[in-house]
Specification:
InterPro entries: DUF1697. By secondary structure, this protein is α+β, with helices and mostly antiparallel strands. 31% of the residues lie in helices and 25% in strands. Helix 3 crosses helix 6.
C-alpha cells in the first residue's frame, strides 16, 4: 500500500545557510525510491508517495541521505495526509477569519505533554495564544511570527528539549493537506 507523506525540513534555505535546492531534494527523494515527488516553496516542504517505512523511519532515512549528499545535518519530520488533515481540522482558532501570517502550527517529532509548557506565563503574552495538540502546537500571533514574543518563549530549549520542532504558517498547513491529498 502506498501512502502520501509530507517531509518538513527544519532550518534550510534561511539566512544563507544550509542551502538545499528543491530540485536536489526532489532528486534525492526519487533516488530513495519514493514516487510522485513534489516540493512546495523553498523553505523545506516535500511531498512524496511511499510504500515502505513509517513516518519515523522515513524521516531518519531522509535526514541521513541529506547529510550524505549535501554535507550538513537537517532535522526532518514526516507526516502522512491523514495526520496533516486532522491537524488542520482540529485548529482551535478561527482560521477562516485570520490572516495566514497570524496562525501557525509547530509540528513536533513526538507527542508533547502539556507539562512542558507550564513555565510559560500565558497571560503575559496576550493577545498571543497557543493551544497544544498531540504532536502539534497551534500559535495565534496577531502581529506575525517574526514579532511574536510568545513564539520566542515556546522555542526555548527547556520547552523543546529532546524534540524536533518546525513551524509552518497557515497557508502552508493548508497547502500540505491539499498536496498530500491529491
Amino acid at each position: 500500500m502506498t501512502t502520501t507523506y509530507a517531509a518538513l525540513l527544519r532550518g534550510i534555505n534561511v539566512g544563507g545557510t544550509k542551502k538545499l535546492p528543491m530540485a536536489g531534494l526532489r532528486a534525492l527523494l526519487t533516488d530513495l525510491g519514493h514516487d510522485a515527488v513534489r516540493t512546495h516553496l523553498q523553505s523545506g516542504q516535500a511531498v512524496f508517495a511511499s510504500g515502505h517505512g513509517d513516518e519515523k523511519s522515513l524521516a531518519a532515512e531522509l535526514a541521513e541521505a541529506i547529510e550524505e549528499r549535501f554535507g550538513f545535518a537537517v532535522d526532518v519530520i514526516v507526516r502522512d495526509h491523514a495526520y496533516l488533515k486532522a491537524v488542520a481540522e482540529a485548529c482551535p482558532f478561527p482560521a477562516a477569519d485570520l490572516e495566514a501570517k497570524q496562525l501557525h502550527v509547530t509540528y513536533f517529532s513526538a507527542p508533547v505533554a502539556a507539562e512542558r509548557f507550564e513555565t510559560v506565563d500565558r497571560p503575559a503574552f496576550l493577545p498571543e495564544e497557543f493551544r497544544l495538540g498531540d504532536r502539534a502546537l497551534y500559535l495565534y500571533a496577531p502581529n506575525g511570527l517574526g514579532r511574536s514574543k510568545l513564539a520566542e518563549a515556546l522555542a526555548r530549549p527547556r520547552v523543546n528539549k529532546g524534540l524536533i520542532a518546525t513551524t509552518r504558517n497557515w497557508n502552508t498547513v493548508v497547502k500540505l493537506v491539499e498536496l498530500t491529498g491529491a
